[in-house]
Amino acid sequence: MKKIFTLVNCALLLTILLGADIRTTDGQHLPSPPKKPCSGYTIVEFGKGVDCNGDTVKLTKLPGGTQVLARE
Q1: In the prediction, which pLDDT does 21 show?
Q2: CB-facing half-sphere around the CA of 23: CA atoms within 13 A
């Protein structure tokens, strides 16, 4: 009984490991999804922020203490 249990576990593990790398028929990985347009940013520190693409953006202070994207 213990040998059957061990064989079933080995077969299951082998199936999981073989199916982990799914490729298309021509051997290439599946393409990444297209980037969506984004708007907005996250303030990191005073005068600097990060937009949704991960790029650093410059911010300027408005009266009242708010910060907006700097115009160049």
Answers
A1: 65
A2: 7
Domain borders along the chain are 40-72
In Å, how far are 21, 23, 37 from 57, measured between CA atoms?
Answer: 37, 37, 16
The residue written with tokens 């593990």 in the block is 13
Could you say which DSSP state residue 1 is in? Answer: -
Q: What is the pLDDT of residues 10-56, one digit of tens each?
A: 999 888 887 766 665 666 666 777 877 778 889 999 999 998 888 89
Q: By the 8 A CB rule, do 49 and 67 touch?
A: yes
Closest CA to 45 of 65, 66, 59: 59
Structure tokens at 8: 């079933």
Q: Quickly tell me which residue has 């064989």 as its tokens.
A: 7
